[in-house]
Design brief:
The protein is mainly α. The protein has a single domain, classed as Up-down Bundle (Four Helix Bundle (Hemerythrin (Met), subunit A)), CATH 1.20.120. About 85% of the residues lie in helices and about 0% in strands. The chain has helices spanning about 5-20, 25-45, 50-75, 80-94. Helix 1 (about 5-20) runs antiparallel to helix 2 (about 25-45) and helix 2 (about 25-45) packs antiparallel against helix 3 (about 50-75). It is elongated.
Amino acid sequence: MASIEIILFALFTIVMAVAALEVEKLTNGILLLALSSIGIGSIFFLVGAHYAAVFEFLLYAGVLIVLFMVAASLTETSEGKTDMEESQLREVKL
């Protein structure tokens, strides 16, 4: 029978994964995905798969950092968007 810690980490992982899908902001979704990955690594550690846990922590830490940087660079801020819209409106008025 599964121990209570494994069940709690499994619930934590599922809640964080669903929350990552449901949030509006992309950066919050990435952080929730990181928490979900920590939950998976913790489950590996509790069942005795220490190498898989370390692999999970190290690999997904690097992947999520890269994903965070790409998401931050590709999303536009609302200020930049309004400046562009204002310049387009000025061109139309001329």
